[in-house]
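Reading a protein record of the kind used here takes only a little practice. The record below shows the convention in full.

——
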Amino acid sequence: MVDNADNDEIKLKPYYVAYLDILGIKNAINSEESGVYLNKINELYKESMKMINTYNSLKGYKLNIKTKIFSDNIIIAIPKEEFFGSSTNDIRSFYMVIIVAVFQIIALGLELLIRGSLVIDNLYIDENFVYGMALSKGYELESSVANYPRVIINSRDISLFLKSDIQQNIIEKDSSNMFYVNPFKGYYDTFTPEEREIIDPKSYDEAFNHIHEILTPKLKEDNSDKVNQKICWFINLFNKYCKEKGYNQYIVDISKYPYDPYEVPTICTGKAKELV
C-alpha cells in the first residue's frame, strides 16, 4: 500500500492493474435468474481470492497483490517497484498475466465470460476505495476497445508484459495489432497437472469437454447479433486451441449458429419470383 506521510496524505504509485468486467451481469440482475448469477459471482470471487492469497504467500516474491470488488467488476493491482531493479518488476508482470488467465478460466467454469484490460499507471488502492489514472484507463480500454470476451493490454505497456518466453506464448496479437491474454494458453500451457489440480482437478479431456458443454448453448437465436458476435469470437479462440492441441473432438461447431443457413426460408418478391 502507499505509505502515508506524517500528515496522513495519501499518494499515487505505479501499479500493474487488471480491470475486469463480468459480461452479461447487468441484464441478469433484472432477470428471473438473478439469484443464480449472484451465487456464481460469489463463487468466482471466493475462488479468485483463494488464488490471489496463494500467490501473495509465495516465499521470496512479496507480490503484495491488492483487489477491489464492486458488483460485476474486479480490480487486481500489483505494485510496480521503482527502486529494486527490473527483475522484481519482471516477476510481477509475469504473475499479473498468469492471474488474469486463471481468473478467466475460473469464470468460464462458472459459465461466465470476462472482458477487461491490463495497464500500468498510477493508482491508489486501499480497503476503502480505489483512485487513479490506471483505473480510468483500464475502464476505457475494457469498455471501448476490448470488444470481445478477452483481456487486452494497453499498447503503451505491452513491452513490459512480454519479458519471458511464457508471457510471449500466452499473449497474442490480433489483426488490428491489439494484444490480449489467451486464457487457455495461460492456464493449460503454463501449469503442470499437479498445479492445475489445486484450481481445477479435471483432466484435459474432462476440462475441454466441460468447456465444450458450457460454450455450445451460449449462442441463442434470441441473442442480439452483437452478443452472438462476441460469443463466436471466444468460441473460435477455444476451437483454435483445441486444434493446436489435437483435441478436435471438443471443437464447438458454430457453422449452424445462430441460424442454420440451409433452413432459413427464402422469400422472393417481384421479378425474383419468376426465377424460383
